[in-house]
Amino acid sequence: MPDQTHKGQLADQAFLFGPEDGRAPEDGATADPIDMQIVASTYRSIVDQDAFEDMIASWAAKLDQIEPETGRRRGLSQQLFGQLMMARHTLETLDIPAENDPLKRAITDVPGPAVVLTPDGRVAMANIAGERAFATKQGAFLDTEVIAPASLQDYTALMRAARGQGNAAQAILTVIPPPETELPPFTAEGYMIAVRGQSGAHVALRSLEIAWEPSVSARLREAFGLSAAEAEVARLFFLLRDIDRIAEARAVSRLTVRTQVKTIMSKVEAPTNVDLMRLLAMIAGREAMGQRGESPVWQDPLGREDRIETPDGRVVTWTWMGARDGRPAVLLRGFPMTYILPPEAEDRLRRAGVKLYALSRPGYGNSSLHKDLDVRQDNQAALRIFLDRVIRQPCLGIGMSNGFVPLLEEQQANPARFHALMAIGYTGVLDRSGIHRLQPIQRTMMRMAAHTPWLAELVAKSAHRMMRQHGVDWYLERAYRTRPLDMRTCQNPEVAALIRNACEHLLKQGHGAFVRDLQLAGAPIDAAIEALTIPLLFLAPVLDGVFDEMRYRQIERRNPRIRVEPVADAGELIFYQQSRLIVDRIIELSRAPQPA
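Above: the chain's sequence. Below: its structure in token form.
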């Protein structure tokens, strides 16, 4: 992923080195214990996934020293800044270690097509070859037409077992790619992957059609002590997968082959034929020179992405849900790892005649991020291009958490843009006092973004590395483990693939968009709230850890066009926890008469 960080003069450097009397901290001064903790935890966080919280805790204490509101503003020492620069350089030059995410490993450990499915059949992950051969994308449902009729019963049994309704833990299947791919049928293994904290299992489907290099036989003989005859039987077993055909090829009896296969299974410690096939496929895949299951860049799981490219090089992309020719509504996603509706919710939009455009804001997915503009200018420019060229009429604007800010600012600049606005989730965007009620990681990152964005980028870069190494579950656990409802939503296999896709949508271009989003969440909006001349409905999740109903009733009193609707049994991931309610409100507001 390209690095979107700023390489020039640090915008916040004056703050970092500006103690109250204007003099930099003396280099000979006694080292601050907090500084030492910061340095130690920063370097540890490069290799230790559990050190990230220690780094955040140290920075929280440091920010208490340097933020202006404390009146203590000591600044950073040159020594600490030098160590941080070295840590940043280390992060930029180190390779990402091997994936520890079991789902990601399932698609990268083989050179051929591979996909991982949620228990309900949605694609959680796929490599490039898998997207083509299985005719699918991350977040979409697998079309069972690609499973050969003779294998469909085994596939169905495997998927039932993933939902806890059977015990078919593995299978060998025949896959028939769609005719337009011009790919031949191939044999694939299917097996279950348990994911910590989830009730159902994921299912991996991986091609077994891998070339058998001569070095594979040598590897088996060296690693497992197979004889030359046994290595040859293993090769034929991998290629032919049939005892009778192996016996015919070897000109020996069927009993002889069966005995040799059992001996091979004992030596390689493979309890079943499927386990033996998987082991042979893994070894053959690793011996295939330079071939790996390449992970794709993010793509629209709905297969509907469209784009605008402007003469100055800006790219604005979007997808849509609901009715193809329906009444337009525009959705801007924000912090929560959500933006694609579950199928049943999209069906309701379709029946109601609403077309919900999901715009990829700058730095998300395939929409370009422009670092020569600040985050508010960048977002407003992209939104304005989309509204001018695609929508061309007043519509409903929907913002999730900080994604609401560009809509509100554009409405203030162009009052005829929307006939109504809707804000969803993360109540800290409209109630800034809520930032102080955030969990430690989120609160510290928000403080950094507001006062020391360079430090926020350094911490985000470390977190991005951990996500690439350990998978998105590393982030989701830290973001939501203190909020049981949100954590259960992350572990719900029915929406897990959509949440993973939303993570990839944000991180496709690196960590820069995340830091800019932190800054966007702190943009001043009071003037726009007071000047608002169209209805605004705010769906406020009462369990997001921030919501304070009294504060929101004060916002209602400031502008009678604003209505706050507290939503019970909803946290930051309200989009999936209360999808029906959200769709109901979208349908209602999209039908609202336009102002005269």
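Residues 1-28, 289-294 have pLDDT under 50 and may be disordered.
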